[in-house]
Specification:
Layout lengths: L5 E4 L5 H10 L3 E6 L9 H7 L8 E6 L4 H10 L4 E4 L5 H11 L2 E8 L5 H14 L3 E8 L25 E2 L8 H8 L3 E4 L4 E3 L2 E2 L1 H16 L2
Helix pairs in contact: 1-7, 2-3, 3-4, 4-5, 6-7
The chain binds ligand LARABZUK.
Protein name: N-(5'-phosphoribosyl)anthranilate isomerase
GO molecular function: phosphoribosylanthranilate isomerase activity
EC number: 5.3.1.24
């Protein structure tokens, strides 16, 4: 049976692009609640964008070093299905923010060249031990500014046993998605820069092409 790699399109901030991602078949939409990001949205904007998100498509909120009150405050205003922590949060800080918001969370790990398979497995074990709301790791490349940098990391660092549970991100696009899926076999892929025409500016055709590339790769599996 063919595998179905889940797809998250991240950093959306217009209804047109949320609609494009949904129409193309995205499983999840990501919105960035980090004021320093060129992709930032606030809670009222997210609530408005969420009207274009139909049932069974997840809406994921990204946070960088936000406390429990801030995260819970966003969740009270915008219908986030899941959280994604991208800053320097410890396992306990993620656990506390997720508990305050009452949502599952994904922990983004920015992979550096010196990390080893054992480090990634330990991250997973530590976050899992800290909270029943931990849903899994998202692996991204290390970049200044915490994320959304469009940079690929060395996929061979991902342990084979972890791959079926991870969200792979960092520099993915329609051109390298099939290679990433064939080599890593992740649970899901996540893209932001690779579906943009300029930093923070999404493009409907690129969103469509990325999702098509993932679906084609799944068929060839
Ligand atoms: O997108 C941002 O500007 C951002 C800022 C701070 C933390 C995380 C941020 N984005 C994370 C993502 O969009 C994705 O999870 C992932 O890193 C995608 O990265 P890429 O496709 O390489 O742009």
């Amino acid at each position: 049976m063919n595998k179905r790699t889940r797809i998250k399109i991240c950093g959306l901030r217009t209804t047109e692009h949320v609609q494009a991602a949904v129409d193309a078949g995205a499983d999840a939409i990501g919105m960035v609640f980090y004021a320093k990001s060129p992709r930032a949205v606030d809670a009222p904007e997210a609530a408005s964008l969420a009207r274009a998100v139909p049932p069974y498509v997840s809406l994921v909120g990204l946070f960088v070093n936000a406390g429990p009150e801030e995260v819970a405050g966003v969740v009270r205003q915008a219908p986030l299905s899941q959280l994604q922590f991208h800053g320097d949060e410890s396992p306990q800080q993620c656990a506390d923010a997720a508990a305050a918001a009452g949502r599952q969370f994904t922990r983004a790990i920015r992979v550096t060249p010196d990390m080893r398979a054992a480090d990634l497995l330990k991250y997973e074990a530590d976050y899992r031990a800290a909270s029943p709301l931990f849903a899994g790791l998202l692996l991204d490349a290390f970049v200044d500014g915490y994320g959304g940098g469009g940079k690929v990391f060395d996929w061979s660092l991902i342990p084979e046993e972890l791959a079926p549970r991870v969200v792979l991100s960092g520099g993915l696009n329609a051109q390298n998605a099939a290679d990433a899926i064939r080599r890593v076999r992740p649970y899901a892929v996540d893209v932001s820069s690779g579906v943009e025409v300029a930093k923070g500016v999404k493009d409907a055709a690129r969103i469509h092409a990325f999702i098509q590339a993932v679906r084609m790769a799944d068929l060839q599996d």
